[in-house]
Amino acid sequence: MASIFDIDDEEEESQILQRLHVSGLPPKAPHILEVNWRPPPLGCLKVNTDGAAFGSPGLAGCAGFFRTCKGFVKGCFAIPLGVCFAFEAELAAADYAIDYA
Asked: d(Cα 91, Cα 60) in Å, to the nearest integer?
């Protein structure tokens, strides 16, 4: 007796994927914009922050990294925020970064 984990026939595999409504092709990637990180001046730290919410409003969190001019991480934070809007999570990330600096 064969299991679905032991499929040697491509046609059989294709039929299983069709029954499960699984496309064999991945979705087209969205437009990707490359962004280069620039270091802060010598003797300074740079903070990169982000906040996000899963929904509008939804469960949210924020995080940030403090880096030296050579790119080494000197500190970081990640904080769950509960339910809020994405822009509130972004503002919370900036606020926490200022507090920690």
From this structure: 12
In 9-89, where do the E strands start and end? 46-55, 58-67, 73-84
Residues 6+ apart with CB under 8 A from 101: 45, 47, 66
What is the longest distance spanned by two Cα atoms in the chain?
68
Q: Is 101 helix (H, G, I), strand (E, B) or coil?
A: coil
CA 32/CA 52 separation, integer angstroms: 19
Helices and strands, counts by H and E, the chain:
2, 3
Token digits of residue 29: 């990637």
Domain ranges within the chain, ordered by starting residue: 31-100
pTM given for the model: 0.65
Topology of 31-100 in CATH? Nucleotidyltransferase; domain 5 (3.30.420)
Reported as a single tens digit per residue, the pLDDT across 49-75 is: 999 999 989 999 999 999 999 999 999
